[in-house]
Design brief:
58 residues; mainly alpha; elongated
């Protein structure tokens, strides 16, 4: 897999957040499930989303 950003000045304006991205939706669903499962037992934080960003099409 090649990087989606090779030159920050040139490529950064192309980077965008897509709430409909299937990987982002999975992150949200897994986080919500962990919150429900761990309610009153442990803290839950948003998981590392770099994998979701790397799997998004350029």
């Amino acid at each position: 897999m090649s990087p989606i950003i090779r030159d920050w000045d040139e490529d950064m304006p192309k980077v965008r957040f897509d709430e409909e991205n299937r990987w982002w939706k999975l992150v949200k669903a897994l986080t919500a499930a962990a919150v429900e499962w761990g309610r009153g037992k442990f803290f839950v934080e948003l998981i590392d989303c770099i994998q979701a960003a790397m799997l998004s099409p350029p």
